[in-house]
Design a protein that fits this description.
single chain; hypothetical protein PF0899 fold; four-stranded mixed β-sheet; alpha+beta; about 230 residues; about 70% helix
Length: about 230
């Protein structure tokens, strides 16, 4: 709201104190008073209008600055978000690639362990073929049968090496050749039951445990994170 500033008129006593007033002094005095009132009113209006305009202009400028800063912050945030999106996508791809490489490395480790284990078994059986008979003892211990009437089937080459390197062990069993069996494999019949006492199924069970620890557990952890 514009504020009007009142005009202060001179006291009437000063006007009456003058001795040289003309005959029409009262009319002139009234006109002067009216003119002074109008001038004071106009001046007060102008000053109030100017003061109000200045205050309104300052408020408008302050509001404009706040709006401009807010708009600038929004635009800057949107700009950086736009820059961050491809970076986030790249990081996600790198993380996925790293996960796949780790899984592939674990699978390669499992395959390498199995390969080495097979070679170790092959060398051990070549040097000490009677170790197969230790597997037979272990298998019979888990079967509800007696040791009588047990027939042990071996690969012909394994059987020959056992007879050559450990004849006393060979005489304690009924050892029979079976060309269908691979080296390191052993099949036994006891009390009408048949059991696999070879190395392959034992190695497979061992590698299943290794794979469960290195590969399957990692895949489960990835699914939980996803």
């Amino acid at each position: 709201m514009n504020k009007l500033r009142p005009h202060r008129f001179p006291p009437l006593a000063q006007l009456h104190a003058r001795r040289d007033l003309p005959a029409n002094a009262p009319a002139q005095l009234q006109a002067s008073l009216a003119q002074g009132f109008q001038e004071g009113l106009a001046k007060g209006y102008e000053e109030g209008h100017a003061s109000g305009s200045q205050a309104g202009s300052e408020a408008a400028q302050a509001m404009g600055r706040e709006q401009g800063l807010a708009q600038g912050r929004r635009e800057m945030q949107e700009y950086f978000q736009g820059l961050a999106q491809p970076v986030d996508a790249l990081l996600a791809e790198l993380s996925q690639l790293q996960t796949e490489l780790q899984a592939a490395a674990r699978r390669e480790v499992v395959a390498l362990v199995e390969k080495v284990a097979r070679q170790v078994i092959r060398c051990e059986l070549t040097l000490q073929p009677a170790q197969l008979l230790a597997l037979v003892d272990e298998t019979l211990a888990s079967m509800p049968v007696t040791r009588e009437g047990v027939e042990v089937y071996l690969n012909p080459e394994d059987l020959r090496r056992i007879q050559d390197l450990a004849p006393e062990r060979a005489e304690a069993w009924t050892l029979l050749p079976d060309p269908a069996l691979a080296s390191g494999e052993c099949r036994l019949l006891a009390g009408g039951r048949e059991a696999d006492a070879g190395c392959a199924q034992r190695l497979a069970a061992c590698m299943a445990q290794v794979k469960s620890q290195l590969v399957d557990s990692d895949m489960d952890a990835q699914e939980e994170r996803a």
